[in-house]
Design a protein that fits this description.
Elements: E1 3-5, E2 14-15, E3 23-29, H1 44-55, E4 60-65, H2 68-80, E5 88-92, H3 100-103, E6 106-110, E7 125-130, H4 135-138, H5 143-155, E8 159-162, E9 164-165, E10 168-169, E11 178-179, E12 184-188, H6 189-192, H7 205-216, E13 220-224, E14 241-245, E15 248-253, H8 262-274, E16 284-289, E17 295-296, E18 299-300, E19 309-310, E20 314-319, H9 324-335, E21 340-345, H10 356-359, E22 361-364
Parallel strand pairs: 3-4, 4-5, 7-8, 12-13, 15-16, 20-21
Antiparallel strand pairs: 1-13, 2-6, 3-22, 6-7, 9-10, 11-12, 14-15, 17-18, 19-20
Length: 368
């Protein structure tokens, strides 16, 4: 069955707000590791500057820089790009890589879960769920990144909560899940249940559902099949399928039967169409095209319009100088009529195997 209903108690009374709910800040880390973009690093800081310029207009940007020299370089680039806004705050913390969605904490709110609260009505507080990070069970250089979750939680004045299950720290990346803020989560079997790039040895479907219930307030999980070709994370859902409203999902499709992505994306679409929400009603599923295959040095890259980021008053969308760019932008414009749709050229950025959603992490607004 593609959908599992969790019967577990949300003992912490946490809720992870949807990405479209108000933010206090967006977290990013300034690029510095040339090994993530070998031969293409030079344009990457300018892509970051463009992203920061748009986000900082309507919310604070917490920008992690590796050291004083990195901050100096970032300030210079941002100033030249007209992006050195007062909303940009610098945090001098060393990082290995800059995929903050995966290495950082997940911010949740306690006291407003969308289900019966255990705290007095009207109270709410910010928590930072610190997952263990092991660099997608693939790379060895992640010791700095493993500490970022704690640093983010403390800087945000959030209570740090270390995720444990059966006495073990839980490995989880933010890009492997997407939620609607009212109790439903989407993920892929390829990422969490496969023995390739194994995150948590011995964990089964029910273990993850228990974890999601305890730490994110999730009551049901929609399990998709696989991610797209070229995905270095082995199946992150934020490249393929995203909530855009509590009962509405966009998912990427590939009509070309000869393309390697055709069959797995077709399977995902079938699962979504058979899934139901907590009221037993079908989700509204909108199809989003894929760009033409993006390759570099003979390698297929995980280029997808699904890796967009929803900021306070804008949606930043990766584009690739492809005819389908305009189609994808128009679909998202219809879905977000009250937000500006901002195309960000990501043809160079995707050589790092990530795009806009991978590099950002939202900090939800908490209003008592």
């Amino acid at each position: 069955m593609p959908t599992s209903r969790a019967s577990f108690d949300n003992s912490h009374n946490f809720r992870m707000p949807a990405e479209w709910e108000p933010h206090d800040a967006t977290w990013l880390a300034w690029p510095h590791f040339r090994g993530d973009w070998p031969g293409k690093f030079e344009p990457i800081p300018w892509v970051y500057a463009e992203i920061i310029r748009h986000i900082s207009r309507n919310e604070r940007v917490e920008l992690i820089v590796n050291n004083p020299a990195s901050e100096k370089s970032a300030r210079k680039t941002l100033k030249l790009a007209n992006a050195l806004h007062p909303n940009v705050h610098f945090r001098r913390w060393p990082t290995n890589r800059v995929w903050t969605r995966d290495s950082g904490c997940t911010f949740v709110i306690s006291g407003r879960t969308g289900v019966r609260a255990r705290q007095p009505e009207g109270t709410a507080s910010l928590q930072g769920i610190h997952w263990r990070f092991n660099a997608w069970a693939k790379y060895s250089n992640y010791r700095h990144d493993e500490r970022i979750g704690s640093l983010m939680a403390n800087a945000a004045h959030a209570t740090e909560v270390r995720a444990l299950h059966k006495g073990k720290p839980v490995v989880l990346e933010g890009g492997s899940i997407d939620i609607n803020g009212t109790g439903t989560l989407i993920t892929t079997e390829e990422c969490l249940l496969s023995n390739v790039q194994l995150r948590n040895r011995g964990f089964r479907r029910q273990d993850y559902e228990q974890i999601f219930a305890n730490y994110l307030g999730i009551q049901q999980v929609v399990w998709l099949d696989r991610g797209i070709a070229g995905d270095d994370t082995h199946g992150h859902v934020d490249d393929i399928t995203r909530f855009v409203a509590a009962k509405m999902i966009v998912t990427v499709v590939e009509p070309n039967r000869r393309d390697v992505n055709h069959q797995p994306l077709k399977e995902n679409l079938c699962r979504l169409k058979s899934a139901t929400d907590l009221d037993g009603k079908p989700f509204q599923v909108i199809e989003l095209p894929m760009p033409s295959a993006v390759t570099f040095e003979g390698r297929r890259l995980p280029a997808s319009y699904g890796n967009f980021y929803i900021a306070n008053k804008a949606v930043l969308v990766p584009v690739f100088n492809d005819p389908n760019d305009r189609i994808a932008l128009n679909i998202l414009a219809d879905l977000f009529p009250n937000r500006a749709i901002i195309p960000i050229y990501s043809g160079d950025l995707i050589w790092g195997f990530g795009a806009l959603h991978c590099m950002t992490q939202q900090q939800p607004a908490v209003r008592a």
